[in-house]
Amino acid sequence: MTTISPLAVSDRSEWDALWADYLVFYRRELAPEVTDDVFARLTSEDGLHGAIARDETGRAVGFVHWLFHPSTWTTSSSCYLEDLFVAPDVRGGGVGGALIAHVRDAAEAAGAEKVYWLTEESNETARRLYDRVATRTGFIHYEIEL
C-alpha cells in the first residue's frame, strides 16, 4: 500500500536520492545550491508544494512537486504539476497514479480550474499512465533559455 504525505524537512536524504535519479532520467545536472534551494522552497510553503510516496515498508519510492498560478483564461488558478518521479523498481504499481491523484485533490481543494504537466515525447512508460488519467491537449511546448 502506498502512502503519500507532504514533503517534510526530515525527508531530505530520501528525497535527495530520488531527485538525483530524476535528474539522471532527464539528463540534467544542477548545482548543489539549486537542489538546496528547491528543497527549502518545497518544505517552506512559499508557493511550491511537494509530496513523497512511501511503500508498505516506509521506503520513499516517489515524489511530486506542483504550484498554483493565476490564469488569463479563468478567474481561478491553474495547477502546474512540475516534477513527478517514481523509482524504477516500483513503476507500474500505481505510485505515479496515486501521486497525480494527490495533486488533483490538492488542486480541487484549492479551487483550481485544472491540473496540467509536460513530459518528453519519448517517455512512453509515463505517457501510458498520463493517457489514462488525463487528456492530451495537442499543444507543443516552446521555451527560450535566458
Molecular structure report:
The chain contains four helices and five strands. It starts with a strand and ends in a 13-residue tail after the last helix. The mean pLDDT is 96. It has 146 residues and is an alpha+beta fold. A hairpin with a 5-residue loop joins β2 and β3 (60-70). The chain has one domain (3-133): Aminopeptidase. The radius of gyration is 15 Å and the shape is globular. Strands 1-2-3-4-5 form a five-stranded mixed beta sheet, sandwiched between helices.
Provide the descriptors you would attach to this structure in a database record:
single chain, 5-stranded mixed beta sheet, globular, 4 helices, 24% strand, 5 strands, alpha+beta, 146 residues, Aminopeptidase
- Share of helical residues: 25-40%
Order of helices and strands: EHHEEEHEH
Poorly predicted runs? none
CATH topology: Aminopeptidase
Mean pLDDT: 96
Number of strands: 5
